[in-house]
């Protein structure tokens, strides 16, 4: 998992460090830069997926642009920004520091990139050794490609110059290098790819949705995901709902489930059973559920269905919840 995010000249930040724990809650006033932190994670995910740097910022047919696009990616009046992440290593004394610097004007292109192994003292948090796993050499001219430096023992053929339109990290995992270096690069790429920016929108959860094994970033297909869950994950969902959701509304929610509907059973609807009075229950579908209930259900679903070790980033995590119920959400996330 990620352990730290570092921003330099990124949007509104001159320099900032965000330590990331298994549960990190980010609180701030409007326009304090919370969304800019999320945008940084989204950008890193896109470039590791193989997106060109310009497309990762400005968007294309498949992805919307990062908020502000290229023009506002660098802190004014700077012409470049740097993003760094610390990724946990194979043991408690090892981390990996990935860094990428992007030039935003006059051209949008890669300026610098590196991956460093950091080994710490077991008795303190001091770094004992730093080993470069790859580093790029700055070009002499704007239109010249960059050169990639690997450790001395990596006696493999590499192109002399690399295009500056894409991240080097994602391209290096296709190189037949030493197993140790290759495994580290693959692991860092996987962790960045598994960042999931989740912004559940209750209004989009009230319709029928196709069966799916992956939840959408807005939670719109929650019914289809729940209906398609294997038994083990369904049991986990039911257990979590039983432990927390019944305390969320004023009325006691007895049960939540999704089931296939229609002639072909390829779509699903979300349902719940509420107890209004002792011994009196009412079944309703997602169209009658509150925003807070749907928001809570979407978070539970995302937590259960995301791959183990992935980074789940939830925007406006308390949206639609009464302040008196926030402790339930925090306890569930823990």
From TrEMBL:
<dbReference type="GO" id="GO:0005524">
    <property type="term" value="F:ATP binding"/>
</dbReference>
<dbReference type="InterPro" id="IPR003959">
    <property type="entry name" value="ATPase_AAA_core"/>
</dbReference>
<dbReference type="InterPro" id="IPR014555">
    <property type="entry name" value="RecF-like"/>
</dbReference>
<dbReference type="GO" id="GO:0016887">
    <property type="term" value="F:ATP hydrolysis activity"/>
</dbReference>
<dbReference type="InterPro" id="IPR027417">
    <property type="entry name" value="P-loop_NTPase"/>
</dbReference>
<protein>
    <submittedName>
        <fullName>AAA family ATPase</fullName>
    </submittedName>
</protein>
<feature type="domain" description="ATPase AAA-type core">
    <location>
        <begin position="23"/>
        <end position="334"/>
    </location>
</feature>
<dbReference type="Pfam" id="PF13304">
    <property type="entry name" value="AAA_21"/>
</dbReference>
């Amino acid at each position: 998992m990620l352990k730290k995010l570092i921003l330099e000249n990124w949007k509104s930040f001159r320099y900032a460090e965000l330590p990331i724990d298994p549960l990190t809650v980010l609180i701030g006033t409007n326009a304090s830069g919370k969304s800019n932190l999320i945008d940084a994670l989204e950008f890193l995910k896109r470039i590791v997926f193989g997106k060109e740097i310009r497309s990762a910022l400005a968007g294309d047919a498949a992805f919307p642009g990062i908020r502000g696009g290229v023009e506002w990616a660098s802190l004014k009046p700077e012409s470049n920004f740097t993003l760094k992440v610390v990724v946990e290593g194979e043991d408690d004394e090892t981390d990996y520091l990935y860094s990428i610097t992007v030039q935003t004007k006059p051209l949008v292109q890669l300026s610098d990139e590196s991956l460093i192994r950091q080994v710490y003292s077991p008795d303190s948090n001091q770094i004992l050794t730093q080993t470069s796993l790859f580093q790029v050499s700055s070009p002499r001219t704007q239109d010249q490609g960059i050169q990639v430096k690997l450790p001395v023992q990596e006696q493999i053929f590499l192109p002399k110059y690399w295009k500056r339109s894409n991240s080097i990290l994602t391209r290096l995992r296709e190189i037949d290098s030493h197993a140790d270096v290759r495994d580290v690069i693959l692991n860092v790429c996987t962790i960045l790819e598994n960042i999931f920016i989740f912004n559940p929108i209750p209004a989009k959860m009230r319709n029928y949705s196709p069966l799916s094994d992956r939840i959408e970033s807005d939670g719109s297909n929650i019914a289809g995901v729940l209906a398609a869950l294997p038994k083990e994950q369904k049991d986990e969902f039911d257990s979590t709902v039983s432990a927390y959701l019944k305390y969320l509304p004023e009325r006691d929610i007895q049960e939540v489930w999704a089931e296939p509907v229609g002639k072909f059973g390829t779509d699903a609807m979300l349902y719940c059973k509420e107890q209004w009075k002792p011994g009196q229950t009412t079944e309703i579908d997602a169209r009658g559920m509150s925003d807070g209930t749907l928001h809570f259900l979407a978070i539970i679903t995302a937590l259960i269905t995301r791959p183990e070790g992935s980074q789940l980033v939830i925007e406006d995590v308390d949206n639609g919840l009464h302040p008196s119920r926030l402790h339930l959400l925090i306890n569930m996330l823990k």
